[in-house]
């Protein structure tokens, strides 16, 4: 374990209480346009202050622990933490899963985007949820009506402001369909677009910024590059607040945190050959692996991975992970997308494959597991 990386317990997802899937239902209540019951009948207990319009600003990669640790670099955002409890990402704590939970109001076990990569059932292929695959229809992969659509049906204006390149992507269609999409690449045009969209009453405007996450992956969250990017994000958020009318509420959230993984904490399955035994397909991501096993090999795979990793990761069967509630209630069609075995890393451990995922080996900051650094996210209202 690297210096400065605490060996602490996992954070369980706060589904239906204070998680990303609770945001849009709570905003709908705050706007006075409550959602009708959907595919998930369990109500959320999250309550937000009433307002005629809400702007939800999601900052990719800004964990609550990171914001607390580097408060000096983000004076505006860190000031909002006072008196406001953190929320949690879902499991795994990764972008595709989290963005879909926010847009649909569903847990991962319901919406089915269960990781950065996951098996396409009945095949030996993985779906990369960020790049997508043209052979996979996003409306079939995630067939449920989104919370954005449900809010719009209640008479609210719902707008997504995001980079132009994300318009019509598989993830956008799966997670955020039903909202008007406004492409905006620069900070100035993003804020202007949010200002225009949020002038409607009642309305929800969703704004996404992924630059902090990109910087953390490349340079690490302890780097000067990351701290400078955090300062820029803080300025953007403060400018956004100053531009919006006082009656419009700004809700700042994140999709996950991040942790730097030291070289000595990384395990390459292509160098530890027994970790390949019985594994037909390796999915997930470096901090949270889905292992799709050959027939009859599950028990042996669990035993081998546990013996090799020890206390560096929790290794369990799919059934055990489901029973722990990590994914919420898992719908039958989603079940085979989960690994037969799942591996959730502790401390700063990372499970790599330089053959299958060579790009991951070049990253410094990683996320996906259930440590507080990855799971706890800000959920602050101004």
Automatic annotation (TrEMBL):
GO terms for molecular function: hydrolase activity. Pfam families: Phosphodiest. SUPFAM superfamilies: Alkaline phosphatase-like (SSF53649). InterPro entries: Alkaline_phosphatase_core_sf (IPR017850), Phosphodiest/P_Trfase (IPR002591). Coiled coil: none annotated. This is Type I phosphodiesterase / nucleotide pyrophosphatase. It comes from Nocardioides ginsengisegetis. The lineage of its organism: Bacteria, Bacillati, Actinomycetota, Actinomycetes, Propionibacteriales.
